[in-house]
Amino acid sequence: MGNENAVLIIGAGAAGLSAARELTAAGAQVIVIEARDRVGGRIHTLREDFSAIPIELGAEFVHGKHPQLLEIIEASRILFCDVTERHWYIEKGLLSNSHDFWNKLTALMDLMNLEEPDRSFQDFLDSIPDDEAIVRAKAVATRYVQGFHAADVNRIGVHGLVKANEAEDEIQGDKSFRILRGYDLVTSSLLEPAKTNGAIVHCNAIVKELHWRKHQIEAVCLSRGQTQHFHASRAVVTLPLGVLQARPDQGGVRFVPKLPENKQQAISSLAMGHATRITLLFRERFWEGLDIPAAQAGQDLTDVGLTELGFIHYPDADIPTWWTLLPVRAPVMIGWAGGPKSTKLSGRDAKYIEARAVNSLKQIFGVSEKKLRQLLLASHTHDWNSDPFARGAYAYLPVDGLLNQQILAEPLEDTLFFAGEATSVGHVGTVHGAIESGHRVAKEILANR
Ligand SMILES: Cc1cc2nc3c(=O)[nH]c(=O)nc-3n(C[C@H](O)[C@H](O)[C@H](O)COP(=O)(O)OP(=O)(O)OC[C@H]3O[C@@H](n4cnc5c(N)ncnc54)[C@H](O)[C@@H]3O)c2cc1C
Q1: What pLDDT is recorded for position 300?
Q2: Both 257 and 281 in a single domain?
Q3: How far is the CA of 77 from the centre of ligand 1 (A)?
Q4: What residue's CA is closest to ligand 1, atom 1?
Q5: In total, how many domains does the chain have?
Q6: Mean pLDDT for the chain?
Q7: pLDDT value at residue 132
Q8: Which of 144, 381, 396, 447 would disulfide-bridge 278, Cβ 3.0–4.6 Å?
């Protein structure tokens, strides 16, 4: 199947679909091959019959105002709202708010720089002398890097974090938005124009082998038990880093001939982070009626109370970070564990994750498990860490990762092109990073046609 002049795009996530949209808009013939029975990849929205609220199993937030993602949202008139920046902490049964959380965090993160040789975030923290305030700031920063970057602090590199902070500053990344009717609207806004311009999308087609030589591609796929062959002159590889890292006999893709040594080394040295998200749908917003004592005397937090609960952090819980859908008032709570806490939950079934989630809320709010179970209508989670077509949540850059990321993104022989969130400098691990990488490869391909 296919056409000698076509471009084969492997993976129909945000990166693959944005490449498909850009390439078809410029008149290229495009074939997209996707292993799952759906497009979207790590954007995966569910809808329950009994609830108007879309449930995100993958990406939920639009981080900042990246022009290429904003353009899609605006052109398709997708409704979105601000996400509250209100963070609460419960420590030793007492509630405090986030006033000094960001200050502590940014003061510490501002000490990182690109001038010194790269080192792990943990080594960087260890190099700062301790006093009582710094010890707390280090704990906050560690939890942030584990939670947001889904990373192991002993591996993630300072240079990658500095780049991520710089990139975030350029797009007002401290503000986040939520797509009211589901993130998959972004997927559709990429898919539809690509299809209108002639892109052919094959779902349920798992690429097992990719044979390549200059301007000749053959993808050998397994599709519903049958072997299929697709031919093209170029291929865009948007496989998640975790899939690129997997050996062919363990579910990875066999490149024939093998990828050059430096590309293989770059792939194996980058890291796929772990994250677990669970959405709990309740009968009511039970937290709004709770009375939790405030941490500092005179700080009457219960005045605004938990009616304005945005994010809540309780580091000791198995699922330590929770948030509501504020400003939308819905009886929904989303739990998040990133980095090592998520690794511990990998491979466990949904019932187990639900039980850890209920237990975490019990610890946070002091509400009995029995009561929480009575209030709980449904829960949804997806094990991205064990998902064979993701093999992790999103990538992060270990020490010296910037150079390896550059090597990963480099095209080979004007024939194999590499996109996907892992290749996106500064915006690694995000939807807008994936979309930006799709634009980049489309430009690389079109420049030589
Ligand atoms: C739980 C979670 C929460 C997240 N939250 C956010 C967030 O709030 N905001 C944000 O910006 N980002 C978030 N992200 C990250 C974001 O979802 C990803 O960075 C982005 O969607 C990745 O897009 P991609 O196209 O690079 O990869 P994918 O979306 O993974 O696309 C790659 C595609 O390749 C397919 N594939 C894999 N193997 C094969 C094969 N052998 N043959 C054919 N096809 C194959 C996959 O099925 C997939 O569809 C989150 C991710 C997770 C997991």
Answers
A1: 54
A2: no
A3: 23
A4: 58
A5: 2
A6: 93
A7: 79
A8: 381
